[in-house]
Amino acid sequence: MSITIYHNPDCGTSRNTLAMIRNAGIEPQIIEYLETPPERTTLKDLFRRAGMTVRDALRQKGTPYAELSLDNLALTDEQLLDAMLTHPILINRPFVVTPHGVRLCRPSELVLEILPEAMNRPFTKEDGEVVIDDKGRRVNK
Q: How many CB atoms lie within 10 A of CB 3?
C-alpha cells in the first residue's frame, strides 16, 4: 500500500501520525516538507482532495502568518500559496495520502479515517494518551 506523509519531525502531532502508520505495519513515503516543499500543483491537489481551502490549510502558530498579514481576507488563494511556497512552515501538517483518501491529520487520530489497517492494533501517543486499546477499540472518538 502506498502512503505518503508530509511530515515535520519537530511536530508531536506529525510524529504520532507517522507512528500510527508504522504501527499498522506500513512504512510510508516521508516527505519532510520543510526541506522539500511540495510544488504548487501538489499543494492545490492535496487541499482539494482533503476537502479544504487554501486558507484552511494555513498554519498560524509558530509561523510568520501575522507578520505577513495573511489574515487579510482580500488575499487570493494564489497569494496564500505564494506565501506557503516561500515559507513552508505556513503549510499545516501532517497531510497524509492513502488509497482511502487525503487528510490533514490534526488531531493525529484523523489518520484512522483513511488507514483502516491501523484499527486493530493498540496504539498510545507519545504523551501517553491511548488511541486504540489492547482489544482494538478506538478510545475517545
A: 20
For 1, the grid coordinates are: 500500500
Give Rg (Cα) of the chain: 16
d(CA 58, CA 89): 9
Catalytic residue positions? Answer: 11
pTM: 0.91
Which of 129 and 81 is assigned the larger pLDDT? 81
CB 25 within 8 A of CB 50: no
Residue 35 covered by a domain: yes
Torsion of CA 86, 11, 26, 126, to 10 degrees: 180
- CATH of residue 57's domain is 3.40.30.10
Asked whether 86 and 113 are in contact (CB, 8 A), the reply is no
For residue 70, the one-letter residue type is L
Into how many domains does the chain fold?
A: 1
SS3 of 63, please? coil
